[in-house]
Amino acid sequence: MLQVLYIFIPMLAAILVPFLYKSIKNIHTGWFVLAVPVTLVIIYASYIAKVAKGEVFQAELPWIPSLDISVVSYLDGLSLLFSLLITGIGSLVVLYSIFYLDKHKEKLHNFYVYLLLFMSAMLGVVQSDHLITLYFFWELTSISSFLLIGYWYTRDASRFGALKSMMITVGGGLMMLGGFILLYLMGGTYSIRELIVIAPDLVGHPLFTWSLVLLLLGAFTKSAQFPFYIWLPDAMEAPTPVSAYLHSATMVKAGIYLVARFTPIFAVSELWVWLVTGVGLLTLFWGSFFALKQTDLKGILAFSTVSQLGLIMSLLGGGAVAFHVNGAADLVFKFAAFAAIFHLINHATFKGSLFMIAGIIDHETGTRDIRKLGGLMSIMPLSFTVAAIGSFSMAGLPPFNGFLSKEMFLSAMLALNEFELFGFDTWGALFPIVAWIASIFTFIYSFYFVFRTFAGQYKPEQYPRKPHEAPIGMLISPMILAAFVVIIFFIPNLIGDTFVKPAVQAIQPFLYDSPSAIDIHVSAWHGLQPELFMTIGIVIIGVLLFVALPKWQGLYNLFPRSLTFNNAYNKIMQGLDVGLYRISRLYMTGSMRHYLLYMFSGIVAIVLGTLFVKDAFSISFEGSAPIQSYQIILIIVLVIGTATTILAKSRLTAIIGLGSVGYTVALFFVIFNAPDLALTQLVIETISVALFLLAFYHLPKLGKREERMRFQLNRAIISIAVGVMVTLIALSAHSQKLIPSISKYYEETVYSLAGGGNIVNVILVDYRGFDTLFEITVLSIAGMAILAMIKLRMNRKEKAHENK
Q1: Is 547 exposed, middle or buried (CB count within 10 Å of its CB: 0-12, 13-18, 19+)?
Q2: Inter-CA distances, 393 with 167, 338, 347, 470, Å
Q3: How far apart are CA 287 and CA 275, in angstroms?
Q4: Distance (Å, rounded) from C-alpha 363 to C-alpha 92?
Q5: Its family (predicted)?
Q6: Which residues of the chain have pLDDT under 50?
Q7: How far apart are CA 359 and CA 392, in angstroms?
Q8: Residue 69's beta-bridge partner residues?
Q9: d(Cα 236, Cα 731) in Å, to the nearest integer?
Q10: Residues 393, 395, 397, 403: what is their CA dihedral angle, to the nearest 10 degrees?
Q11: Dist. CA 533–CA 676, nearest whole Å
């Protein structure tokens, strides 16, 4: 139980943030918030040693037991790694935000509430073993990220970016939900663990492919894969701490996590291998190529994030091949999954530091436009050092951790070229070529980011502010991440044994019994292998193309903006906006008669259609009591009273007609031996008539002008249809019972469970206690509102009288 509650600690802490912000103004709110992720890091760090040995921890908190929905926290190597990234990077981001966000100018209570909400949502995503709760937390990440991206809501670009990200990721989430539902229909369980166990039995199911595609749509939209990546660059309008957290280490990694978690279920499918690997490589190439078109520092990092996510995704696809091969090649593809997780850790370190440096440059110079930047190396030496470490790691150079995982990536792509199943021996030949070309562009944009910013000519007239080095508090977080970039290069196997292998064992549970069975050793030097020569080629060609960048960068201007995915998205949204507005104008006429006509038409069509399709028409008078003559008289009185209420030209006559209907209904309750209901009806009817008379006394008399309304056939048909529908429902409900009536349960338990002798009173007070309580509450609120309005009016009259 306690393990589940860890997920909600940030959410609970968010409740206190507004109070801290308002009551303690001398201290930056971030210092209080910092304690939350730091505490969670310590808690999750206590699991590292046991999880590294292959142990798993599971706890359950019932949520909706009637629907078999629970919050199940499952901590294995994969979920623990992500939990540590979420809380560890989260701690550094909060520390960075303390110095980045001004406590006097920013609405910090909003920022930290959104951030903590997002942290809980991400922990829920990576730890949930239940499909429905995973979806709940998944969409909560979209909502909270929408709030974070749109934090500066007075800016049009922030609102646009927030809406764009939510539209794409929530749409993908709905697709993913469809895949989850299909998985449940196939396996009969919501548990991911149980679905993995029965995965071999699911492959031949006709819904398997549909579930696979829908789930990947959710993963691809969240992790900014091609062509859904378009939301990520626009999300850069968020404050830099948000970009460093959401778009380098957490939210965009949710899609990566989803693919990794469901690999044991879907990896046996050829389609899974092709889609994950192919889309990943295409995203890698697309993001790395177009990163050099950007002029905004965060825009460059956004496209670099897209490319790096594609790299990790392609490695997960390559790792899925391990489910299809045996022998010597088996280790190569297991190696791909190891490389995917290793690069995921590396990417979080160097990309988090680079985002923070981009924020520092913007904060200290007033611009992120790379065309205006340059010559900052001597002015901001610490920032330059961190930027160089992060950029060189991203470029895949030693002695930085990105070099190790990039070499693994090239090894995996070369191995795919030799894979003979699924047609990889033909089309698979493109994989190492695309990977190599994309790596060249990765090298170029890494150098482009660091040297165009810090090297070159210093242009002080271009800066809105006088540049200077950032305060040490703002540099602590990126320096810590940069230190990890270097440290991991020298101790890769310690990281591998502690974090990567347990995660790989969770991704490939059928291939390994424990993390210790994974025989993979990482080294910076592995001989004169093809990947080494590919790296040398990347460096040589990358340097030449970077030096010549001004001569060929203009090629990007040849790509027409009208053919971009962003333009397609804008056209779709504009078309929907105009089209839906026109449709709404057709039925939003302002006429209550039209609205009732639409609603009644829809209700009649749905209900009568359901009755017809389900063959629910059933009319039987068996067991019905005979109708007495005095009951017929009362029915006639009811009809006459109802007609009088509708057709009366005098309010008094209408009130009398309405009262006669109510009192007649009370007589029916007496006849059918329901004295309590009859008494209640009489009291309510008497009060209602008195209130109506009191209210109408103050209203003007009805006008004598008559308005003749033309007979309209469509309204007559709808009126008759509604009457027929209600009659058929009443007769069908009376004539057949699909489920036993609850009245028998009331009869049997009214005394033994509720301790009452009057069944009506017991139903109202006990069985429907909350319903009755809410009704009383609503009436009390309405009464207080009326009393307040009366007193307000009386006070105004008294003041007016005093003024006179």
Answers
A1: exposed
A2: 33, 18, 9, 22
A3: 17
A4: 18
A5: Belongs to the CPA3 antiporters (TC 2.A.63) subunit A family.
A6: 328-329
A7: 19
A8: 64
A9: 61
A10: 70
A11: 92
If we measure between CA atoms, which residue out of 493, 477, 324 comes closest to residue 401? 493
Q: What is the pLDDT of residues 358-389, one digit of tens each?
A: 999 999 999 999 999 999 999 999 999 999 99
Q: Which residues contact 201 (CB under 8 A, 6 or more apart)?
A: none
Give the containing element (helix H, strand E) for 726: helix 713-735
pLDDT in tens, 670-680: 888 888 788 88
Q: Which residues have CB under 8 Å from 147's CB, separation 6+?
A: 110, 114, 117, 162
| Residue owning tokens 């990794």 | 260
Cα distances (Å, whole numbers) of residue 347 to 204, 298, 310, 484: 37, 16, 12, 11
Q: How far apart are CA 578 and CA 570, in angstroms?
A: 12
Question: Can you tell me which residue has the tokens 């109708």?
Answer: 627
Instruction: Give me the phi and psi of 728, to 5 degrees please.
Output: -65, -40
What is residue 804's predicted lDDT score, i.e. its pLDDT? Answer: 62
Smallest CA-to-CA distance from 611 within 623, 619, 599 is with 619
Q: What is the pLDDT of residue 332?
A: 63
- Asked if 315 and 345 touch (Cβ cutoff 8 Å), the reply is no
From 664, 665, 654, select the one nearest 693 (Cα to Cα): 654
In the block, tokens 């998944």 appear at 138
Q: How far is CA 196 from CA 191, 201, 518, in A?
A: 9, 10, 20
For residue 606, the tally of other CB atoms under 10 A from its CB is 11
Crossing angle, helix 328-365 and helix 401-417, to 10 degrees?
140
pLDDT of residue 297: 94
User: How far is 319 from 332, CA to CA, in rounded Å?
Assistant: 8
End-to-end Cα distance, the chain: 69
Place of tokens 């611009």: 367
Owner of token pair 């009393």: 787
pTM given for the model: 0.82
Reported residue count of the chain is 804
Q: How far apart are CA 264 and CA 505, in angstroms?
A: 10
Angle, CA of 722, 724 and 728, to the nearest 5°: 120
d(CA 91, CA 362): 22
Residue 119 CB-half CA count within 13 A: 34
- For residue 81, the Cα-to-chain-centroid distance in whole angstroms is 21
Beta bridge partners of residue 130, listed in sequence order: 191
What is the rounded distance in angstroms from the CA atom of residue 609 to the CA atom of residue 489? 67
For the chain, counts of helices (H) and of strands (E): 33, 2
**Which secondary structure element, helix H or strand E, spans residue 221, and what is its range?**
helix 208-222
pLDDT at 686: 87
Start-end of H helices in 736-765: 743-749, 759-762
Q: Among 774, 772, 754, which residue's Cα sits nearest to residue 762?
A: 754
Among 445, 444, 388, 443, which residue's Cα sits nearest to residue 410?
443
With vertex at residue 486, the alpha carbon angle to CA 480 and CA 490, rounded to the nearest 5 degrees, is: 130
